UniProtKB/TrEMBL annotation:
Gene Ontology CC: plasma membrane
Species name: Cellulomonas xylanilytica
GO BP: any one term: response to antibiotic
InterPro entries: AAA+_ATPase (IPR003593), ABC_transporter-like_ATP-bd (IPR003439), ABC_transporter-like_CS (IPR017871), ABC_transporter_ATP-binding (IPR050763), P-loop_NTPase (IPR027417)
Name the UniProt record assigns to this protein: ABC transporter ATP-binding protein
PROSITE patterns recorded: ABC_TRANSPORTER_1, ABC_TRANSPORTER_2
Alphabetized Pfam families for the sequence: ABC_tran
Subcellular location: Cell membrane
Primary location recorded for the protein, binned into one broad class: membrane
The UniProt record lists the keyword Translocase: yes
Annotated ABC transporter domain residues: 7-232
GO MF annotation list: ATP binding; ATP hydrolysis activity
Alphabetical keyword list: Antibiotic resistance, ATP-binding, Cell membrane, Membrane, Nucleotide-binding, Translocase, Transport
Length: 304
């Protein structure tokens, strides 16, 4: 059916050693959209995607990709799905161009290899064996292999990890084109700017469950909440200058973030309090919450 989700996960459970790393997860991704799956390390993102790709068998719940079971109906899905694994998953003993040409021959209507090579800058290492490629070069080659067959759904695990800024933006442009062609793009990423720039829908996963989802504007916007960022003397008890309803953090020494109903009165009150402490604000900005702010509020600021 045209309106059916490209990916539908319901109550997914996956256990390792009796511990559920994915615990009743629900997720929907649609064609012509980029769905970004975010979460701390160990949250269950990669395991979830591997269940969608048919690489792992769920212990509970259902996964349907284009209406098919990726474990039972893998042969039917293979020509319709592109996969870019976190570790590349590439054979290491062959040259880059030979590997990509081999993958292209598996499909009835592959993309033009010359155009794809130019878009992703593969020509500079086309004759280099995969084992000798840098991390960023392997990422580019893995992305090319994932999309060369014109998939209807593509899973991208950390697609721009290890890439320089120029290559990263080239990859982003390609992801947007895939979306505009009607492809369902499901990507995992630790880069908040990548998710904020590309995603139509964001799904935040922690402890094996979805804890928030929606468009970027719906997640970051609030009628009351703005973010005050300032740099001043480290170690100040800045929260004492504010009433209830504000969250204060000091992610780096002397760099403070205040989230809440920030208005001109709050800004004036904070600067007056700093003056009373003989502390000078060397930088002060007010803006909306970012996706990173939301992510940290949801999943915590402590290292796992």
């Amino acid at each position: 059916m045209p309106d059916s989700p490209a990916l539908e996960i319901s109550g997914l459970v996956k256990r390792y050693g009796g511990r559920a790393v994915v615990d009743g997860l629900d997720l929907v991704a649609r064609s012509g959209q980029v769905t970004a799956v975010l979460g701390p390390n160990g949250a269950g993102k990669t395991t979830t995607i591997e269940c969608c790709e048919g690489l792992r068998e769920p212990d509970g719940g259902t996964v349907r990709v284009l209406g098919l079971d990726p474990t039972v109906q893998a042969r039917e899905l293979r020509p319709r799905v592109g996969v870019m694994l976190q570790d590349g998953g590439l054979p290491t003993g062959v040259r880059a161009h030979e590997m990509l040409a081999h993958v292209a021959r598996m499909y009835a209507d592959p993309r033009d290899l010359g155009e794809l090579t130019e878009r992703l800058g593969l020509g500079s290492f086309a004759r280099t064996t995969v084992r000798r490629l840098s991390g960023g070069q392997r990422q580019r080659l893995a992305l090319a292999a994932a999309i060369v067959g014109r998939p209807e759904v593509v899973f991208l695990d950390e697609p721009s990890a290890g890439m320089d800024p120029q290559t990263r933006h080239a990859v982003w442009d390609l992801v947007r084109e895939l979306r505009d062609e009607g492809v369902a793009v499901v990507l995992t990423t630790h880069l908040m700017d990548e998710a904020e720039d590309l995603a139509d829908q964001v799904v935040v996963v922690d402890h094996g469950r979805v804890i928030a989802q929606g468009s970027v504007p719906s997640l970051v916007s609030s009628a009351e909440d703005r973010t005050l960022r300032l740099e001043t003397t480290p170690g100040l008890a800045l929260s004492t200058a504010l009433g209830p309803g504000f969250v204060v953090s000091e992610p780096r020494d002397g760099s403070y973030t205040v989230t809440g109903a920030v208005d001109p009165g709050v800004v004036a009150g904070v600067t007056a309090w700093l003056a009373a402490q003989n502390a000078l604000a060397t930088r002060l900005t007010v803006g909306r919450r970012t996706l990173e702010d939301v992510f940290l509020d949801l999943t915590g600021r402590n290292l796992r």
